[in-house]
């Protein structure tokens, strides 16, 4: 089989994800194909990576993208710096870095599945190893751990830093530029003990219900594929019925990141989300019903959002497009929350909200930066009320909103992140403003944040090439519009361009964004 034919079986789509096509290898359809060929003795013939079923390769690349470990793999693959730089550039354009990596190392250099399997073993990518299990000999399959450690085992052996403290970076020369980040402030946080971690868990969850893992297993019909709602870098979300109530259950995964004990990193992420969702009560925060820490994997249980995500509603082909009024109300609700978490301080002990506007320049007030604002993280209920979820990457920012802190690594979704964060690693509230601006532009233009068929590829750059008096031509044409709505949409697109300004200081604060949307909307409350 030629390399070219194998490449055609997989290609990045407009959003940089991998799509599979119905290709044929040796006369058989390879979509959903079986494992490696074997004899009656159980011997599995090693094969080149380009001979893998395209569906299997697509799923593997998607998983590695979610885990954000391609640069660690590039190091052990001994990829040339020029190749690594090329993949980084393509990643910034929304392409799949894992697919580009495997194409370069595995397909062009003709490496085998077993070689890839062993590299994944070195990096403790156990789930990825399971995905290739049927394509390697049994002696290699035995390297896969039989089960995941329980949370109590993790905590007993954990040396996790405090939730907002630094995580030691990998000692390798290649660092993942899209991994979860930690603050590299001058104050280093000492390792915490098991008792401290347990104390943190109980403190964060003191106002929530602890749900047994067995109950959640029953609620999701033993984690049925039929009930799977989606999958992300830190877990899989299932629909379930618990206590006669429809819920969404996020089952958190253990994975390897930067060669460290991945379980500890994942525990930190789950506790981070538990911490923030237990502290904040707001109409536009995704409600967290409870948690489970007593089973094979930690789980978080949320209210089920039956309206889907803003991303699904913006780009749905079969459903009616959102009306202009619905879009305005969704963006208004999202901006209200982002402004709230930046400008409010929470007293956890008494669960009171204190207005933070008078404290913005006080050293005692630290804004919360979500870090991953995008349409996929804006969930909608049946009335289309927006709820922002996925606080796993949320971090406390500098005391003054006008300041920034330097982080050790970049995290989040690249098309929604500004250059001072991607390249300079400077984190401030203006990062959320930029992300929100991209989402605002998507909502009123109907264009995706990144599009391979558009120049420039990034929506945040594309709108800057359009004259102000021509912004009206960018309004989503799928939805009928009245004259007064046209003016409103044009003004909101203009607001979006202000939010994605290149310089952080040129972007408005979220309070201004909220007030402007409120001023622009033409519909009565």
UniProtKB/TrEMBL annotation:
Residue intervals of the Death domain: 70-136
Catalysed reaction equations from the record: L-threonyl-[protein] + ATP = O-phospho-L-threonyl-[protein] + ADP + H(+); L-seryl-[protein] + ATP = O-phospho-L-seryl-[protein] + ADP + H(+)
GO terms of molecular function: ATP binding; protein serine/threonine kinase activity
Spans traversing the lipid bilayer: none
Domain Protein kinase: 223-519
Residues noted as binding ATP in the record, renumbered to the chain: 250
Alphabetical UniProt keywords: ATP-binding, Kinase, Nucleotide-binding, Serine/threonine-protein kinase, Transferase
EC number from the UniProt entry: 2.7.11.1
PROSITE patterns linked: DEATH_DOMAIN (PS50017), PROTEIN_KINASE_ATP (PS00107), PROTEIN_KINASE_DOM (PS50011), PROTEIN_KINASE_ST (PS00108)
Polar residues composition-biased segments: 187-196
Broad EC category: transferase
SMART domains in the cross-refs: DEATH, S_TKc
Record has Transferase as a keyword: yes
BP terms from Gene Ontology: innate immune response; positive regulation of defense response; positive regulation of intracellular signal transduction; positive regulation of metabolic process; signal transduction
Composition bias, Low complexity: 168-186
InterPro entries documented for this protein: DEATH-like_dom_sf, Death_dom, Kinase-like_dom_sf, Pelle_death, Prot_kinase_dom, Protein_kinase_ATP_BS, Ser-Thr/Tyr_kinase_cat_dom, Ser/Thr_kinase_AS
Cellular component, GO, one term: plasma membrane
CDD domains referenced in this protein's UniProt entry, alphabetically: Death_Pelle
Annotated spans, Disordered: 1-23, 165-196
Membership in a protein family: Belongs to the protein kinase superfamily. TKL Ser/Thr protein kinase family. Pelle subfamily.
Protein name, UniProt field: non-specific serine/threonine protein kinase
């Amino acid at each position: 089989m030629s390399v070219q034919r194998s490449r055609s079986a997989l290609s990045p789509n407009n959003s940089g994800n991998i799509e599979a096509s119905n290709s044929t290898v040796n006369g058989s359809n390879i979509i959903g194909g079986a494992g490696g060929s074997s004899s009656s003795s159980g011997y599995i013939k090693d094969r080149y990576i380009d001979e893998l079923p395209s569906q299997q390769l697509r799923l593997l690349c998607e998983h590695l993208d979610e885990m954000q470990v391609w640069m660690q793999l590039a190091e052990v693959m001994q990829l040339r710096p020029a190749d690594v730089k090329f993949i980084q550039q393509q990643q910034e354009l929304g392409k799949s870095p894992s697919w580009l990596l495997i194409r370069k190392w595995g397909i062009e250099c003709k490496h085998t599945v077993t070689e890839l399997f062993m590299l994944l073993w070195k990096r403790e990518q156990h789930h990825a190893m399971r995905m290739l299990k049927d394509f390697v000999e049994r002696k290699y399959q035995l390297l896969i751990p039989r089960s995941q450690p329980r949370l109590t085992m993790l905590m007993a052996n954990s040396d996790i830093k405090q939730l907002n403290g630094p995580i030691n970076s990998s000692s390798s020369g290649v660092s993942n530029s899209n991994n979860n980040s930690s603050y590299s402030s001058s104050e280093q946080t000492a390792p915490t003990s098991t008792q401290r971690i347990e104390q943190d868990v109980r403190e964060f969850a003191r106002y929530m219900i602890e749900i047994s893992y067995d109950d959640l297993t029953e609620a999701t019909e033993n984690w049925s594929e039929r009930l799977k709602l989606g999958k992300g870098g830190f877990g899989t979300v299932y629909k379930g019925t618990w206590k006669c109530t429809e819920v969404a259950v996020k089952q958190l995964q253990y994975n390897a990141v930067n060669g460290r004990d991945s379980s500890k990193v994942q525990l930190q992420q789950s506790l981070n989300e538990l911490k923030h969702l237990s502290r904040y009560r707001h109409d536009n925060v995704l409600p967290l019903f409870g948690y489970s820490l007593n089973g094979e994997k930690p789980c978080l249980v949320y209210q089920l959002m039956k309206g889907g995500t803003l991303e699904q509603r913006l780009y749905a082909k079969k459903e009616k497009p959102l009306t202009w009024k619905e879009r305005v109300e969704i963006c208004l609700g999202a901006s209200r929350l982002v402004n709230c978490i930046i400008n409010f301080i929470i007293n956890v002990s008494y669960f009171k909200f204190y207005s933070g506007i008078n404290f913005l320049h006080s050293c005692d007030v630290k804004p919360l930066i979500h870090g991953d604002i995008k349409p996929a993280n804006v969930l909608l209920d049946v009335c289309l009320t927006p709820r922002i979820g996925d606080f796993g990457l949320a971090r406390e920012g500098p005391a003054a909103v006008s300041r920034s802190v330097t982080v050790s690594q970049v995290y989040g979704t690249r098309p929604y992140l500004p250059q001072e964060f991607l390249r300079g690693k400077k984190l401030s509230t203006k990062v959320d403003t930029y992300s929100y601006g991209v989402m605002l532009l998507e909502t009123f233009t109907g264009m995706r944040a990144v599009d391979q068929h558009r120049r420039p590829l990034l929506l945040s750059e594309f709108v800057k090439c359009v004259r102000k008096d021509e912004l009206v031509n960018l309004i989503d044409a799928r939805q009928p519009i009245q004259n007064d709505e046209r003016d409103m949409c044009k003004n909101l697109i203009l607001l979006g361009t202000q939010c994605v300004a290149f310089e952080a200081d040129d972007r408005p604060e979220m309070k201004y964004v909220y007030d402007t949307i409120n001023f622009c909307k033409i519909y009565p409350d």
